[in-house]
Inverse folding.
């Protein structure tokens, strides 16, 4: 069979076009038109998320340079990143929740654009997001840092987003509502009863378990503070549940706490030692005993299978860098006030204000103390810790210390 000549093909095309016009089938002309050239697909691979409940870094390799657009969504809290048309070669293990990121979704949203959605555990801010060229290998990398933050900070970021990037707000799947902050924010306290769930903590001479002592004390302290009528009080736990140490810190930051108080009751091999101790954070312990206490408390995550290796120097450096001098100064100020008030009502250990590297005290912007109420290994301390009258007078002293500290903070404008 002979191939149609060029003249015949041209004539056939004209007849098809005339038939299309005659029958109102103009769409036929579109269907035979050549499709527009599409941009090359960028390949994305090797997604890595590293960090903890305070700060998480997201890194993903790209085989080409890519412009990106990002915005925030609430309910739940999410970071949304729009990329050019991208092919994702991400393995399931890379999508497992890590640090602040609880879920990752990705896919094509149009012929020319793709989207990634990172669900975040609570309010956060974006400390940096960019695409940069790799220094020692081909390609580029996407890098984003998300940091746990109070709800007010997240709302402020949403408000800025709505004001400076209307297209971002329009892309949200729920409306962005903004408004003035409530005047006269109440002084906010987060009470952290130590241990819980699978991690019972220390055990007393009569078998009493630390997690129960701290929870009973924390709930009574909460009730006493709420009775004052001018504080906003949150609990990291109000029942017998396990919470990783960094999750306790995240709760304090999420609730925009002005003060974080972690409650514990220790044991020691020397039965004669007794009395309460107030700790503030430091990279260098005040003494060997303080270092030992911090080590035991920091192992809580390991006991429940949530291991954060101390050898992870990158995460450790980030945490150290985040500890601001002003916050540390306020922590010390409250610790001294608390020791002064407690000394009028209960037994304190020698040198009752001590410091060590407690992970639970490492919130960068929340003054924090850890109170060891006494030693469960000492029969007298254990009996007092179980005594409602002793708890009441101890809590009265703590409420007075919080009152003095909150007034000083307000006068200082912080």
């Amino acid at each position: 069979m002979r191939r149609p000549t060029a003249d015949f093909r041209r004539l056939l095309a004209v007849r098809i076009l005339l038939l299309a016009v005659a029958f109102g089938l103009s769409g036929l002309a579109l269907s035979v038109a050549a499709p527009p050239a599409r941009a090359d697909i960028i390949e994305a691979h090797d997604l890595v998320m590293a960090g903890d409940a305070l700060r998480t870094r997201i890194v993903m390799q790209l085989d080409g340079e890519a412009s990106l657009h990002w915005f925030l969504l609430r309910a739940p809290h999410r970071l949304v990143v729009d990329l050019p048309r991208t092919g994702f070669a991400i393995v399931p293990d890379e999508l497992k929740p890590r640090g602040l990121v609880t879920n990752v979704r990705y896919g094509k949203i149009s012929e020319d654009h793709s989207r990634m959605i990172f669900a975040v555990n609570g309010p956060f801010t974006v400390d940096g997001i960019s695409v940069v060229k790799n220094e020692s290998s081909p390609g580029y990398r996407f890098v984003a840092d998300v940091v746990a933050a109070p709800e007010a900070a997240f709302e402020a970021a949403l408000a800025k987003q709505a004001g400076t990037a209307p297209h971002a707000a329009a892309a949200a799947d729920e409306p962005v509502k903004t408004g003035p902050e409530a005047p006269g924010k109440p002084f906010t306290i987060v009470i952290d009863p130590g241990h819980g769930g699978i991690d019972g903590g220390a055990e007393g001479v009569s078998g009493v378990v630390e997690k129960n002592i701290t929870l009973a004390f924390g709930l009574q302290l909460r009730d006493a503070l709420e009775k004052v009528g001018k504080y906003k009080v949150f609990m990291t736990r109000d029942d017998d549940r396990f919470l990783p140490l960094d999750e306790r810190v995240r709760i304090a930051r999420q609730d925009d706490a002005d003060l974080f108080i972690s409650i514990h009751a220790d044991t020691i091999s020397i039965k004669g030692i007794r009395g309460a101790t107030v700790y503030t954070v430091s990279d260098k312990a005040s003494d060997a005993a303080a270092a030992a206490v911090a080590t035991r408390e920091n192992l809580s995550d390991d006991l429940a299978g949530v291991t954060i290796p101390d050898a992870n120097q990158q995460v450790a450096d980030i945490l150290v860098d985040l500890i601001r001098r002003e916050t540390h100064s306020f922590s010390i100020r409250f610790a001294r006030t608390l020791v002064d008030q407690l000394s009028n009502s209960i037994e304190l250990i020698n040198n009752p204000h001590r410091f060590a590297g407690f992970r639970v005290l490492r919130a960068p912007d929340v003054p924090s103390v850890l109170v060891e109420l006494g030693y469960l290994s000492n029969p007298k301390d254990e009996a007092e810790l179980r005594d409602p009258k002793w708890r009441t007078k101890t809590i009265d002293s703590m409420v007075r210390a919080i009152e003095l500290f909150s007034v000083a903070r307000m006068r200082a404008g912080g």
Remarks:
- Residues 187-411 form a domain with the Aminopeptidase fold (CATH 3.40.630.40).
- The chain is about 35% helix and 25% strand.
- Residues 1-38, 165-183, 301-323 have pLDDT under 50 and may be disordered.
- The CA atoms of residues 17 and 29 lie 7 Å apart.
